[in-house]
Amino acid sequence: MARTVMFQGNALTLVGRIAKVGMRASDFKVVSQEMRDVSLSDFKGRIKVISSFPSLDTPVCDLQVKEFNKRASAFSQDVVVIGISKDLPFAQKRFCSEHNINNEPVLSDYKTSSFGINYGMLIKELNLLARSVRIIDKNDIVRYIQLAPEITKPLNYDDAVTALDEVMKNPASAVKEELPSKCKPCEGIAAPIPKAEIEKLAARNPSWEVIEGKKIVKEFKFKDFPEAKYFLDTISVIAEEQGHHPTLTLMYNKLKITLTTRAAGGLTENDFIMAGIIDGML
Q1: Less CB within 10 Å around the terminal CB: N or C of the chain?
Q2: Taking every pair of C-alpha atoms in the chain, what is the biggest distance, in angstroms?
Q3: How far is residue 256's CA from residue 246's CA, in Å, rounded to a whole number?
Q4: In a 3-state reduction of DSSP, which class is residue 249?
């Protein structure tokens, strides 16, 4: 998927994890119009059509919410349409009330950009979400992604609905993962993995250095201090949601990341999951 979008002919950078069709969808944390936290897991067991957009205060975004709300009325009860932007919940609530948006929960990513980062939809230069629609099936597998190359242009709604029809014929695809996409809770029960398993997992993450069999380390270099700090802040959002916190050492334009599982006193599968997530964000 493209890591840039255009805004009136100018290229802008997309930040976050790479999302691809066939991958397990990442969880995220956004805010409802009643100021409650909402996650992907709140829609467990349903087909999710997630529509992201920059701002309700633009005509194309206004149309996008209204169009999906209208089409959602004809969808099966197994399908939920979700709108997400970085508009404040108060503005979203006012918009939905004024325009009778009753078939589509509209949620805000204003707090931590969790959705934008987890789905690679955060526009770095604007701190807004790119225009997209994705379909996630009942097993939380990404089945369809449409990204508007120019954020001032609308999506192809008919193509998204056609894709949804196909997903509904097979609403729960098989899960295929070599490694889980989310770290497992480990406090009090974790044990370090054996040397052979470390070597096997390290071979999948060759850019990370194994230190004394107890931690993995990688140094990232950026253009300047703000760039390095921006990456640190982005990693911090993911780390908090994963419940797996690396040691982050910022040295001007360099960021050194050290991963280990303190509860296990060494390396666990979680460290390599987190390493893969971090690598996928560049």
Answers
A1: C
A2: 61
A3: 10
A4: strand
pLDDT at 192: 86
User: Which residues are known to be catalytic?
Assistant: 61
Identify each DSSP E strand in the chain by its residue range: 4-7, 10-15, 29-31, 37-39, 47-52, 79-85, 106-108, 122-123, 128-129, 132-136, 142-147, 209-211, 215-221, 247-251, 254-259
Please state whether the predicted TM-score (pTM) of the whole model is above 0.85: yes
Strand order in the sheet with 79-85: 37-39, 29-31, 106-108, 79-85, 47-52, 132-136, 142-147
pLDDT over 60 (residue 187): no
Pairing of strands 215-221, 254-259: antiparallel
Tell me the two tokens of residue 213.
């069999």
> For residues 30 and 109, is the Cβ–Cβ distance under 8 A?
yes
Query: Identity (one letter) of the amino acid at 166?
Result: E
